[in-house]
Amino acid sequence: MNMKTFVWVIILGAQCPFLINCFEPVSGFVAGVAGIGSIIYTGFHGLRCKIFVCCDKSQISLNIQGLREDLSRKLHGQHLVEKAVAGHVMGHLQSVDPHKALVLSFHGLTGVGKNFVSRIIADNIYRGGLRSPFVHLISATKEFPHEGMVPFYKDQLKQWIEGNVTKCERSMFIFDEVDKLPSLLLDVIKPYIDHYLELGGVSYRKAIFIFLSNAGGTEIGKLVFEHWQSGKQRKDIKLSDIEGSVMVSAINADNHNGLWHSQLISNHLITSFIPFLPLEKQHVRACIKDDIIKKYPLHFPNEHEVPEDYVDEVMQELKFYPPAEQVFSVTGCKRVSEKVDYVMMDKVLPKQNSRQKLLEL
């Protein structure tokens, strides 16, 4: 109870030493007692949420403008992702009673932004982003490394989802390397993303599930390269141009693990399959500038201040394919940060040391 609430309770007590005299008839008395109870509970809840993290608007609130701006400004070369993610997330979070949990499946090669977009979503919904107690990241290879322990993992995963959604119905679950998960383990998730009103007295409809996978990435790369060879604009690629081929390729894969061989696919429970395109040199250059600005804001406050020759040096440390055309980055933007550290060590640090010596003189 905050001080203001406490003062009002004292004033009411002073004015009405015998509550029965203050609330006439009896219905008024009952209403008055209920009102006091509500005030006290509200004050207690507010105090509790100042001490502990609560699943309420103070911790969970969609920043629509921030989500749009971050996807537009920070994500490079992924126009299909930008449109699909913004639309689905906004639609789900603005619905008072969604028909089912939001389930987004991100597909693409390494370094194209799948984890990065997950972080952008978390940052614009949850206070604390990925560090929020209501955002849960699970790595398939780390958490479920042994195929022979699938029965144990199934019970563990079931309890984990139920426990977290019981605490907060707006929980978000991110499954990384989902293509390495046994399909039988993924089947455990099916009831929680289906259209059930409740399971065991708990609604899972407001939860968010995001699956990150390399499955279909090679096929996406081939389709984008063919599109480039034909002389077409990258921005002209449509979701319908890729989605069908990627699904067929992944389902027919020799590896029978992962999302594609689970009941989540056969029961049509995925809200959207979102392909991440391989990144071209222009997109990697943008990632390099972002990283330099982030690490050296005093030296380079914006992208226009970053010398192009610095960017060129970092680019020389990265690999591109196909061997003849050198169009797409082998690792996307994944290795950009470490290469920026390597190149900038000889650029910025000597200047900093020289400036420090001058100040000492």
UniProtKB/TrEMBL annotation:
Listed InterPro entries: ClpA/B (IPR001270), P-loop_NTPase (IPR027417), TOR1A_C (IPR049337), Torsin (IPR010448)
Assigned keywords, A-Z: ATP-binding, Endoplasmic reticulum, Glycoprotein, Nucleotide-binding, Signal
SUPFAM superfamilies, sorted: P-loop containing nucleoside triphosphate hydrolases
Leader sequence residues: 1-22
Gene Ontology, cellular component aspect: endoplasmic reticulum lumen
Gene Ontology MF term list: ATP binding; ATP hydrolysis activity
Localization annotation: Endoplasmic reticulum lumen
Keyword Phosphoprotein listed: no
Torsin-1A C-terminal domain residues: 279-342
UniProt family annotation: Belongs to the ClpA/ClpB family. Torsin subfamily.
Name this polypeptide is given: Torsin-1A C-terminal domain-containing protein
Natural source organism: Elysia chlorotica
